[in-house]
Every structure is written in C-alpha cells, then in structure tokens.
Amino acid sequence: MTAxxxxxxxxxxxxxxxxxxxxxxxxxxxxxxxxxAIRRGQGVWLEDMEGRRYLDAISSWWVNLFGHANPVIxxxxxxxxxxxxxxxxxxxxxxxxxDVAEALIRLAPPGLARCFFADNGSAAVEVAVKMxxxxxxxxxxxxxxxxxxxxxxxxxxxxxxxxxxxxxxYKDIYAPLLMDVITAPxxxxxxxxxxxxxxxHSRRMFAPMRELLERHAHEAAAVIVEPxxxxxxxxxxxxxxxxxxxxxxxxxxxxxxIADEIAVGFGRTGTLFACxxxxxxxxxxxxxxxxxxxxxxxxxxxxxxTVYDAFYDEYTKLNxxxxxxxYTGNPLACAAARATLGIFASxxxxxxxxxxxxxxxxxxxxxxxxPHVAEVRQQGMILAIEMVRQRSSREPYDFRERRGLKVxxxxxxxxxxxxxxxxxxxxxxxxxxxxxxxxxxxxxxxxGIDAATCD
Length: 455
Ligand SMILES: *Cc1c(COP(=O)(O)O)cnc(C)c1O
Prior knowledge:
alpha/beta; Aspartate Aminotransferase, domain 1; Aspartate Aminotransferase, domain 2; 7-stranded mixed beta sheet; 4-stranded mixed beta sheet; 16 strands; 36% helix; binds pyridoxal-5'-phosphate
C-alpha cells in the first residue's frame, strides 16, 4: 500500500517549486548542486533524509555554539514555551529578557550599561547606527550624521547595514539606494609586506583611518568595525592594536565606536568578546548569531549610560528612541540566550576552546606548504585557508572557476559542511567538536583543496 506522502515529490523538488533561498543563485540547485534536506541535528552533526551525516564545520552560518539539539538549551526553550511564547515588549517585561540584559552587561567590556533588543544582526546594526546619529542630534550636534567604515567590512543586508558594509558582491548593485559613507582601508593582515609583523602592519594601516577621523570629525557620528576578523570579507584578520588606536582616536575626535561582534562575539576569537583582546569598550556593542546558541533569532545592542542619558527626558521633548520590532525581546529567544550564557558560566568554555584552537592549528599546519595555499590564518576558533593559483605571487583564482564550490562538494561527499567564501576555506565549528572530528575536518579540507586545485 502506498502512503499518500509517497506521491509527493521529494522534498528538494517541492522546495525548488516554492522556496527562494538566501544568498543563492537558485539555478545552481537545479542539476549540479542538489539541495540537502536535513531531518535532524545532534551535536556537531546534521543528518539528511536518507540518513547521511554531515559535520557542521561552519556552525550553520556561524550561529551554533554548543551543538544542535543541545539538551540544556532545548529544555530551557521547552520550559519557556509552556509558560509564555511572546508578549509585547513596550510597557511589559519578563524574566528571560531582564536576565539576559543583566548577564550581557555583566559580561561585556566595562562601561556598557544598557541593553536594547532586536531580532537579527542587521537590525542590531540599524539600531546602533540610528542611536549614534540620534545621540548627536539630542546632544546639540546635528551635523554629525556620517559613518566611517572599513574596506572589506560586512554588517548585514538591510539597507542601513549594507550601506556601512563594503563587500562589493553584496553592496554594489544596491548602491543607488544606500547612504553615502566614508571608507577607510582595511587593516587586513593578508596584505602585509613579506617579513612585516601583523602588529606593525595594523599600526601602519591605522594612519589613513586617523586622517579620516581628523578630517571628518565635525560630520562623523561613528566608526563601525568588526573587531579582529572581517568574517564575511573572506575571514581577513588584523591585530588588536588597531582597535586600541581606534578607540583612542574616536575619543580624541569625539566620534562613536560601534563594535559589530555579531560574528566574532561569544568566544569565537578566543576571548568571550574580541574587544577584550584590545582592552577597549566600544560605545555600541552589536551581538547576535551565537547569542542564542544558534537556536532562535535575537540580537542585542549594548551601550553606555552617556548614550542612554541623552535620550532620557520628558516625553514631550520627543527625544526618545522610538525604534521597535514586533518580536523585540521574544521570551523564547531570550530563554535560549539565558541558557547559552548559563553554559558559559558553568563550564570552562573559553579554556577548552584554547585547546581546540591549538588542535585546529596542528591539524592544518601541513597545509601552509601546499602549492595552492597562500596563507593559513587563525584567530581562536576561526581558521581560514586562502587558496590561490600561484603561491609565490599570490595570484588569485578567477571567481568564475568556483574553486571553493569544488571544495564544498568534495566535503559534502565526505560528510562535512565546509562552505568556502570564494577561494577561502574556513572552519568555524561548534565548540562541542572533538579533536578527532577536527582531524577528520582537516583531512577533508586537505583532500578537498587538492581536488579543487589539481588543474
Ligand atoms: C552575519 C553578520 C551580520 C548580519 O546578521 P544577520 O542576522 O544575518 O542579519 C552583521 N554583522 C556581521 C559581522 C555578521 O557576520
């Protein structure tokens, strides 16, 4: 007997008839690159409808920290689900949100005293940009309206976030819709001279940023940066000294500093927040991705009392920050975040990550000599391998050759999700990965890079 569901086309076919996927040329999926339908996840593993397993080496787009179907987080969300799924967050509050706000303020660099919730990373960037602009207006400096950004930066896809970002692939087509920003060169350490240290390169690359700050101080509201790693910009990394210099110059020229730790926060770079490595406190700290352990969309913007106080006044002055999202402070998402922060509090996550990061370095060390690898770079739990046509000249592969895609397909066949950015293969795994699983990943990456670069 045939069950009714047997008459339905496989999920992939149904999907292609109805769904439009993010960041995807849908034509790719019609023949060569079948969509993979996932049935369940457990720890670092995903399982498809046929029972094949894939090691999730990219934490499902950098969100997962403690594994899929993590029993602690799942139980916390289930408990919350039985109590309260959602309530309007204007005029009302609830324990999960207050707990998360208090915990974030406790954990974040000293001086951040207020937590504003939104529901994804791009929205957090919009909030920080609007708050900074509005702060200067409330403070009698309405001329400070422009934003300084770094080349090769990424801050999300909504129009404000896209405007302050700088990855041409995502941004250029929408240029007519975007506000004009001031762009400083990236401190990207990949561009350093042979023999130059990362620190001296980052110091040298700060000079043009300082000049821009000086020249535009009267009209600049804020500088926005991704601390230490430009993740979507091919995992390019720089030295913490850049952030120290930037903090000092922002103070000198009276410009806000927005730290977008949406990707690098929550232990990815080896410290809980990347700003810690420069011992700085930004005026705005944007968090999302790992905040809920990869369970539910939630973001937070932390800021100082100084910023908060500039909005605090009689209603009739119309100085308040009237930004909102329907699902602001969603209790389920906050319960997941509270449980995630609880894991950081109750287990030595950062210490264990140090060992895992050292293991990632050892497992991939031999790739540094590969004839088509220009650099293996690492910042804590982020490790990236830059594939090039020619190692000595660092001549890149033409993007049309899609070398990264070859690694992606190879990895899927061998049971791992490695999703290169262009020609950069990277690992950003959940923290519950084991050393043996790292060895497996390194082997899959090595054989994948061999296969992708052999012609
Ligand atoms: C992913 C990301 C964003 C955008 O977050 P979304 O939740 O995808 O909107 C912003 N900034 C950085 C640094 C990111 O990596």
